[in-house]
Every structure is written in C-alpha cells, then in structure tokens.
Amino acid sequence: MLRTIGLPLLLCGLVPSLHAQFDADELLHRAIARVRDTVDRLPNYICTQTMERSETWGSPRAAASRAGNAEGGCDWLLRPDPARFPQTDRVRVDVLFTSAGERYSWAGSNQFRDQDLLHLVPIRAISTGGFSGFLRSIFATGNVFAYRGDSLEGGRKLPAYSFRVPRERSEYWFGTGSNRRIVACEGTFLLDPETADLVSLAVRSSDPPEATGACRATTALSYSRARLGDSDFLLPTRSVFEFMSTRGEEARNISVYSDCHEFRGDSTLQFGPPDPGQVPVSKPAPRPVLTLPEGLLFRIAFAEDISYRTAAAGDTFAAKLTTHIQDRFKEILVPVGTPVVARILDADSVRVRGGIAHLIFRLETLTMGGVAYGFVATSAQRVESDDPFDDGTYKCCRNDKDVAALVLATNTAILKFYGIPRDFVLKAGKQSTWRTGGTGPTLACLNDTGRCK
Predict the structure, then answer these.
(1) How far, in Å, CA of 316 to CA of 306, rounded?
(2) Averaged pLDDT, 66-75
(3) What is the tens place of the pLDDT at every residue in 75-100?
(4) CATH class of 297-446
(5) φ/ψ of residue 214, rounded to 5
(6) Which secondary structure element, helix H or strand E, spans residue 218, and what is its range?
(7) If you write DSSP's letter for every residue of 316-367 in order, what string do you get?
(8) Count of alpha carbons within 13 Å of 312, Cβ hemisphere only?
C-alpha cells in the first residue's frame, strides 16, 4: 500500500471511508511531533559506544566488470566472498552528543575535543555524521513521506514509511576528513502504533561523494526511550553502517550505545559563537610529564591477558617495567616493577594464513609515588612477531598513511602474530623493548587524541 503524505498534515475533515488513511496520517503526525520534541529539548549527553568493525576486500575481477556498466552504483560489482580476507576489530569510546554533532573521547577519560571519530581512531574508522542531524533533517516540515504498509520487526508488525531529503535540506554528513560532505538521503522508518515513537530508521546516501570511493552506504539505527536528568528522550541504542566501494570492498560497523547520561562532568564546557561548526568541548586536565634523558633502554611486560574476543581500541591495560630505567652512570631513575598503563589503538585479526593478529598500543603513564606521569619513549623493536619467517619490519598491508604515522610515532608499538586461533589470547608476560625519548612527535602523543601531530 503506497500513499503520499505531505507536511503540514491536514487531519480534519476526513470521512469515515478513509479511516485507514486517517490512522496512517495521524500516527505520522504524532511521531513527527515526538521526534521534534526530543531534538528541541535534547541536552548534551554521553554514551559509551562499542563498535564492531569488519572489512572484506574486493575481488580483483570487480574492476574489469565495470567496463560493461553504464548505470553506476554497486550492481555491476562482483561482491566479495565473506570468507576471503575478512578483517575484524573493535573500538570502545565515549561519544558526546550535541546539537552540532558527535565528539569522541577514549572511554572514561571525559576529555572531548572538536574532533570526529577518525581523529581519535585513525585506522579504518568510518564516520557518517550526527544522529540528531538525521532526525532534524528527515522529520523537518516540507518533506514528503509515503506510507508503505506494515513491516515485521522483532515479531511485531509496525507501520513503515519512506522519505527522501534533498541535499539542500539534508544534515547527513558522509565521509571523513577532507572528503566529508553533506549528501542527499532517502530511506524508511518504523513507528510504534501505540506510542508513536520512532522504532528504527534506515538511511541511504543518494549521492556519496566520488572522492570517498563509495558506491553504496547505508545506516540503520534502532531507537528507544531513555532517561536523561528529569525527562525521557528518544535515543539511538544501536547503529549499523555498511559501506561498499567502487573496488568491491565492503565494510560494516555495528555500534551499541550504553550507559547514556547527561553530560555534567567536572570539566568546563566552552561554548563558541552560535555557529553550527562550533562544538562545546571540555578542557583537558594537564598531566605531569616525567623528563628522562634520551636513549635509555628498558623493557616492559604485560601484566594482564588481552583476549581478542573482547579487546577494543580505547581499552587500557596494565604493564610493568621488567628492567630499571637507569642513566649512563647506572643511577636508577625509574625502578623495575614500576606500573605502566598502556592503551590499545588497534586490535584486529585477519582470517588468512591461519589467522594474523596485530596489536597497536601506546604507553601512556608510569606511576611513581602514587602519581601517574606521562613520558616519551620509542619502541626499540618496531614489531615483535611470532612468525619465524618475519624479518622484523612492519609491512603495512592496508597502504594507510595514518597507520604508517602510528608506526613511527613515539610511545607506540606494534605486535604481530601469525597462525592464531579465533579465540586468540595474548598472555600476560609478553615483553617489548623501548628507548626513552624520540625524534618524532612527543608531547602531542601524551594527550587523548590517539593521533600524534
């Protein structure tokens, strides 16, 4: 059943013979009012976002198939085999939702800057813009909706509606970095017929920027009511972003949002002028930095297991010094056993050659006298590998400049493992060698941005 519904809605004067149409119109009218109420009243709030990311690399035959395609889009591509080179990882961050979009921080740090997810986790992150922007542009006055009948979700039959938002009215940001653009979008949504709440929303990019290399991109969101302060609001609980490139590569990001609460942190919020591009951010607390002479060798050992079933970029783990840090006169500057905190920047696995795993991590602090100090060090063995045929150098299989920058960054190291099982656990006791100081970026690596500049 297809019926076009324009806004504003005229709900009076309908005759009894049009009762079904009246129900569809009336439900849509109530739902739009409830969505707008949420968007208008929604305070700044924080959720913990856990994202499962996967990639499947395209078939080399896909490019050859393009010559016979005149329509564009993805239909001409040979879809990659999900069993071929699947690459997976996990990210855990805090996300600050504001009217101007989302800003990210490592989970628990409560230090938000004017940056998107790509700046925090520069490896394979895909950012698609603000959820409040989705709702604001999709449910704006002037858009045209079509009732599509009922759709089954979670064992319930729910009324389904379609929509289309032209680029000039859209707030759907697609892409990352310099390739980030506002694009037209279209899709469908389901409503709860009793409460008129939005249950789910599926958004497709109608015209992804050519520079992103995308031929198809979709975002599916699930919503529910949650309490923030003294009021309840319609919040996303889960999102699935799917991307297909013109080379036949596919990526999927599945995010779950938990522990949502109003942003009332101790940090001072700074508000810029009333410009949509200006986002309130918190002022990061200064961290004391321990200055050490350059070139002093030391080793650390992991003090806990890291399971690839649960490990996520953004998680911290405990380590400790297994050697003293001592100067050339053998004076002990930092004693053996000193606790070290490290943060995972990437923990991925590739199902090829029996399984490959990478762990990219950054040393953040060492604790002496109850004080956590930042410090600067450089990995003295860039890659520790359990592959007997490895030559000890890191070969970037993703041709990603951001990965290369991380490899060379101070305080950052990579571990590489071959022939791992799916339930791979990196056991406590794993050691790596470091050297104090570094010629690359230094203090910029001591903050929570995840990217050294």
Answers:
(1) 10
(2) 48
(3) 655 555 555 557 788 889 898 887 76
(4) mainly beta
(5) -90, 140
(6) strand 214-228
(7) EEEEEESS-EE-TT--EEE-TT-EEEEEEEEEEEE-STT-EEEEEEEEEEEE
(8) 17
Two tokens at 25? Answer: 């119109």
Mean pLDDT of the chain: 74
**Averaged over 61-71, what is the pLDDT?**
43
Q: Is the pTM of this model over 0.85?
A: no
Task: Tell me: pLDDT of 16 over 50.
Answer: no
Domain boundaries, the chain: 3-282, 297-446
CATH number, domain 3-282, options 2.50.20, 3.30.1600, 2.40.50, 1.10.4030: 2.50.20
Domain 3-282 shares a fold with domain 297-446: no
Query: CA-to-CA distance for 12 and 5, rounded, in angstroms?
Result: 14
The one-letter code for the residue type at 86 is: P
Dig out the tokens for 66 from the structure. Answer: 């393009």
- Express each pLDDT in 216-229 by its tens digit: 788 899 999 988 88
Task: Mark residue 245 as left, alpha or beta (left: phi above 0; alpha: psi -120 to 50; beta: remaining).
Answer: beta
Range from 5-9, 253-257, 296-300 carrying the lowest mean pLDDT: 5-9
Beta strands (DSSP E) in 246-338 are: 250-262, 269-270, 281-282, 297-302, 306-307, 316-321, 325-326, 332-334
Is 349 within 8 Å of 420 (Cβ atoms)? yes
Of residues 94, 125, 451, the one with CA closest to residue 267: 94
